[in-house]
Amino acid sequence: MKFQFTEENLNRIEAAKRKYPNPLAAVMDTIYIAQEQNGYITDEVMEEIANVLSIDKVNVLSVVTFYTMYHTKPVGKYHIQVCTNVSCMLRGAYDIWEGVREKFDLDNMHVTQDGKFSLEEVECMGACGYAPMIAVNEDFFENLNKEKVFEILDSLK
After folding, report:
1. For residue 23, is the peptide bond before it cis, meaning its omega torsion is within 30 degrees of 0?
2. What homologous superfamily is domain 78-154 in, according to CATH?
3. Which architecture does CATH list for 7-66?
4. Where are the alpha helices (DSSP H) in the chain?
5. Among 33, 101, 123, 151, which residue carries the largest CB count within 10 Å?
């Protein structure tokens, strides 16, 4: 079935386009809306984004593949991102990374069989002064250790 935006999401995209002098500037908003609707961004979704914004698909692809907040394959209900960049690494990010991998028996960009959790190793998440950090979906957690991370993950239902 061909991906199409819902009427509600088309209205959201039109509102985003009105904020900018050029439709290309609304590409991040539109990708995010598409991801909310579809769960992740496929080639077909990128084509529809390009059509709706009247831009080249390569402009959509370049944004989707640059930012870690966009997913090009399915993720779990709880998508766990572990920052392993320099500040986080120096403060124990790899202990956290390995602990989460072992806890859920997951590799990078894989999803548990029940679809509940997925795991992604990411570069800088912009909280170097509060390292290490993780994100679970849109929630960010800072100044962590493995035990604190397990408490957070065990609280998810």
Report:
1. no
2. Glutaredoxin (3.40.30.10)
3. Orthogonal Bundle (1.10)
4. 7-18, 27-38, 43-53, 57-66, 86-90, 93-104, 146-154
5. 33
